[in-house]
UniProtKB/TrEMBL annotation:
Record has Cytoplasm as a keyword: yes
Protein's name in the database: Protein-export protein SecB
Domain of life: Bacteria
Similarity annotation: Belongs to the SecB family.
Length: 163
């Protein structure tokens, strides 16, 4: 004889039958990719550790009913003794289907969680582009999008950028 356990399916989220929020990753894609090696082949023969400057920006917008696009823009520039070794720019985005998500949770999801989902894929593209350009792969450190978002909120801007 099996015992039946009432899990309270009608009140599973504790909010009197309110539907649970759902997030669907509809598609991820590179919108723009650029790699420049303006001083080749000299830049490929340089010795020493290059100086690398990385900038990150996040943008989000509504793309349709319940569909939102989150964009992650990464720019990296390497210089060696004042000469540009390479510049790589990537605009990587994803479409996310969001249902039953409270309005106040949309922006934090789109500029914190969505970029966190997109980042590993963008990181690989950057690494592959620099490797294919003749340099060691540029392996970007993980980004704390929540801290970036909070810093931008304290600064009073709506767009997250320049990590």
């Amino acid at each position: 004889m099996a015992d039946e356990i009432d899990l309270g399916a009608t009140e599973a989220n504790g909010f009197d039958n309110e539907p649970l929020p759902q997030v669907t990753i509809l598609v991820q894609y590179a919108k723009d990719l650029s790699f420049e090696n303006p001083n080749a082949p000299t830049s490929l023969q340089a010795t020493g550790q290059p100086q690398i400057e990385v900038n990150v920006a996040v943008n989000a917008k509504r793309a349709g009913e319940g569909v939102f696009e989150s964009e992650l823009k990464i720019t990296a520039k390497a210089t060696n003794d004042g000469d540009t070794a390479f510049v790589v720019e990537l605009l990587y985005a994803g479409l996310f289907g969001l249902t039953n998500v409270p309005e106040e949770a949309l922006e934090p999801f789109l500029v914190i969680e969505a970029p966190r989902i997109l980042f590993p894929f963008a990181r690989r593209i950057i690494a592959d582009a620099t490797r294919d350009g003749g340099f060691p792969p540029l392996m970007l450190d993980p980004i704390d999008f929540a801290s970036l978002y909070m810093a931008q909120q304290q600064a009073g801007t709506n767009q997250v950028g320049n990590a």
